[in-house]
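sorry for the late reply, my laptop died twice this morning and i had to redo everyting from scratch. anyway the thing you sent over, i finally got around to it. pasting the sequence first so we're on the same page, its 186 residues, then the predicted structure underneath. double check i copied it right bc i was rushing
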Amino acid sequence: MGLREIESTLPPGFRFYPSDEELVCHYLQKKVMNEILTGGTLVEVDLHIHEPWELPDTARISANEWYFFSFRDRKYATGLRTNRATKTGYWKATGKDRMIYNPNSHVIVGMRKTLVFYQGRAPNGVKTSWVMHEFRLENPNAPPKEDWVLCRVFHKKKSDESYTDYSGTDVDVTDARLLFSIFCSF
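ok and here's the structure:
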């Protein structure tokens, strides 16, 4: 089923904006346990084959963020380092991992790693505006070699850049803010 076919079955105004906790506790947990995921909103993608700008066409739901399941590939057969290289660049981790808690039991159930895409090869890569949040389960009993992750990919824009809205027209963010402030003053 293609992207447009799936979107046509959704109710008007539907947006897929799950919280970090929902991504880990509902979607990723079920994927790892081989449970059936209803809705078909997430697809499996090998992030080493696709460049970030190709991912929106692969996604099931169009928005400003795209969600995928991916298998973490290890850089070395006996090592723990993850291979995050593509044909034209690589994903580089930034900052420290964020803990994801189960909303009911307040137990750590997962981690979120933030990565930025660089074009070229390290250490001379050029930073881009593509960002990925990689979610993984926090389970010390899981095999360390191969595991599923859930990825949220988005293109981070500067506040003065224009962006394309859902209708396909360019919207200047500054103009949009001005219109919003005028609208709110009535």
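The chain has a mean pLDDT of 78.
thats about all i looked at so far, will dig more tmrw
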